[in-house]
Amino acid sequence: MTQQKQYPHHIDLKPVMHVEGVVRLPGSKSISNRTLLLAALAEGSTTIVGLLASDDTLVMLGALRSLGLAWEQVDEHTHIVHGGGGILPAHEADLFMGNAGTAIRPLTAALAVIGGDYTLHGVTRMHERPIGDLVDALNAIGAQIEYTGVEGFPPLRIRRGHIHAQRLSVRGNVSSQFLTALLMAAPLMAREHPVTIDVVGELISKPYIEITLNLMRRFGVTVEQDGWQSFTVQPGQRYASPGTIHVEGDASSASYFLAAGAIGGGPIRVEGVGRDSIQGDVRFAEALEQMGATITRGDNWIEARSNGVLKAIDADFNHIPDAAMTIAVAALYADGTTTLRNIASWRVKETDRLAAMATELRKLGAVVEEGPDYISVTPPAGELSAATIDTYDDHRMAMCFSLASLDGKARRGNTMRINDPKCVAKTFPDYFDAFAGIAHENLI
Ligand SMILES: O=C(O)C1=C[C@@H](OP(=O)(O)O)[C@@H](O)[C@H](O)C1
Ligand SMILES: C=C(OP(=O)(O)O)C(=O)O
């Protein structure tokens, strides 16, 4: 959907013997879309510096405009959002959400609580991604949300309800974005009484909740937290513009380059995230350390370099489900079987990522065991096989499989093909240019 970049139907990557360089990361998707919505709900105007320019943020920007909330881009790096103070000027709107979970889930909660007549829909895959836990939680407190397609999934029709919320509950084991959505909408409900959100069952992807709470705080709303079980917003708190917000670089996007450094020599430095990041995915670097890579960190950068063959690991990746995909491909360069556990959420993301990952790693000659919530990857004894990798309209499939062109495993002469590389537009439209910049002349 992003118009900036024309990609061919496939990209061929020659084996790369060495990687080295510095990559300036695009803005964080998670921070960008949260900041846009909070700025739109706040009183006052917010200047956002370093917003991600990609399909996922375009759908949020488009939705805000359709809702009558004004914003403008003042230069390449700077947007100004004029907040509506909790009011939506457009009482009716039809909103295209692409495949952006960070847009549809938080918007569903905000629109249902504020009220109006809205439809939300997306690409085919969006209509297969669950939203029932969020809709149930909202309808239980008086929202009026209907499914216009299959029950439990978008598209949705939202009508004005009568919200009476003091305590609500939401399941946490399918997506943390449902809790994020309710948290961001909670100050709009907590006009006279405190509002408490209880999490039912295990909460997955916890660090994303920390991003939510951090950004809500910057917009003037504090949430009282009782572990990961319940969250309370006291009445009378309203979102107020903090003036200017700087968006960090995307820590999930950093994972491809850090892994490249760990596999292909390095050093590779990513700029835009570091020790001070609020994104849980910076902990991806710890997994690379466990695999034997050398990682150095500054306030706003991280650097990775290889120490020879990576060590296989067996670890829980529930806290970093997106960056974990990069470990599954890095496992091709490890000295044994690497197992990634507690990643059932992979099945309901851009594609069924457990199935897609297993299928494509096998094409390269790996032995893969795929379970309901885990994947084990044993690299082939010799070289990786030449392969054409399918990407399933999943940006992360395209980005992490570019690493299979690195020649850390004495692979010789096998070009690998990545089909439909344009899917990277979801979060990183210039990904293959950035990759070519560290891999030098590998694109043919
Ligand atoms: O809140 C967020 O910004 C996100 C939460 C995670 O989703 P789940 O909570 O569904 O695992 C993650 O996979 C997604 O890319 C972004
Ligand atoms: C799961 C992802 O996206 P979404 O925000 O649409 O859930 C992702 O970016 O890997």
CATH class of the largest domain: Alpha Beta
Overall pLDDT metric: 95
CATH topology grouping of the largest domain: UDP-n-acetylglucosamine1-carboxyvinyl-transferase, Chain
- Total helical segments: 12
What's the CATH H-level superfamily name of the largest domain?
Answer: Enolpyruvate transferase domain
CATH architecture of the largest domain: Alpha-beta prism
Residue share in helix: 25-40%
Main sheet strand line-up: 2-15-17-16
| Rg from alpha-carbon coordinates | 22 Å
Say which molecules are bound, naming each kind only once. Answer: shikimate-3-phosphate, phosphoenolpyruvate
SS elements, strand count: 23
Estimate nothing, just give the exact number of structural domains. Answer: 2
Beta percentage is: 15-25%
Structural class category:
alpha/beta
Regions with pLDDT < 50 over 5+ consecutive residues?
none
> What is the 3D form?
globular
Distance between the termini: 25 Å
- What profile does the largest beta sheet have? 4 strands, mixed
Subcellular location: Cytoplasm
Binding site for 3-phosphoshikimate: 29-30, 34, 175-177, 205, 322, 349
Binding site for phosphoenolpyruvate: 29, 101, 129, 177, 353, 396, 426
Pathway: Metabolic intermediate biosynthesis; chorismate biosynthesis; chorismate from D-erythrose 4-phosphate and phosphoenolpyruvate: step 6/7
